[in-house]
Design brief:
The protein is of the alpha/beta class. The relative contact order is 0.12. The strands form four sheets. A six-stranded mixed beta sheet has the order 6-5-9-10-11-12, with helices on both faces. It has a two-stranded antiparallel sheet with strand order 1-2. 34% of the residues lie in helices and 27% in strands. It has eight helices and twelve strands. The chain folds into two domains: 69 residues, Arc Repressor Mutant, subunit A (Orthogonal Bundle); 190 residues, Rossmann fold (3-Layer(aba) Sandwich). The chain is globular and about 65 Å long. Keywords: DNA-binding, Transcription, Transcription regulation. Belongs to the purine/pyrimidine phosphoribosyltransferase family. PurR subfamily. Pfam families: Pribosyltran (PF00156), PuR_N (PF09182). This is Pur operon repressor.
Length: 276
Amino acid sequence: MKLKRSGRMVDLTAYLLHHPHQLIPLSYFVERYESAKSSISEDLAIIKEHFEQHGLGHVQTVPGAAGGVKYIPGIDHAEAEATVEELVQLLEDPSRILPGGYLYVTDVIGNPRLVNQIGRLFASIFSSRKIDVVMTIATKGIPLAYAVATHLNVPVVVVRSNSRVTEGSTVSINYVSGSTKRIQTMALARRSIKQGSRVLIIDDFMKAGGTIKGMISLIEEFQAHIEGIGVLVEAQEVSERLVDDYVSIARLSQVNEKENRIEVEKGNYSLNGGHA
């Protein structure tokens, strides 16, 4: 389709935003817009500058016959801080306290805008890692895992407490819950992960880390590799942590049911390669 330059740049920008982490040959855009390669390169240079100035990520150009252009989603420090602060304030609402000291967080996980923003934050944190698949465990972590996977442009696999007929044969393991110390079971379809895949684990909440430890063991059964662990909220008061290398967005410091008070602080996240 032949477009004016303004229309071409709008369409080109939208295309990149909807195809993150995908290497696209310049020849594709030449044919798509019926424009010269030099014109497309100039457009991409402008978009690249704009994205980097506004913290939207990076546009990488790969030279050579097999090269092209790739958009890597990102988030700048100010926007990341604002997202985390919004999450902290939401979680500190005392009306979330449930009997037994539990917290109601379904509305947070069900907020598409916030979850998408947190997904972009996680994708930015792990942007330097080569990730083939995002793994989570049913059920609350699923929306967050899909948000992260969307910005990384990779599939999602969901670990469940029991197998389903529709998933075919499965691999099951027993693991010890870090909080209750009970032996539980998790299962994953054999077709979910290919041997040698690089996996990013995403979970909504981590206390001692028993569930994540179980997922790590399950990944090893597939002869796959852990590329990172992302946790939305971690509990601070834990006597023994079963997982050490992880990234958290928020940290739950205290739930005081008697005083009707919740204390939440920023997690250990960093925008520099996923390390605390």
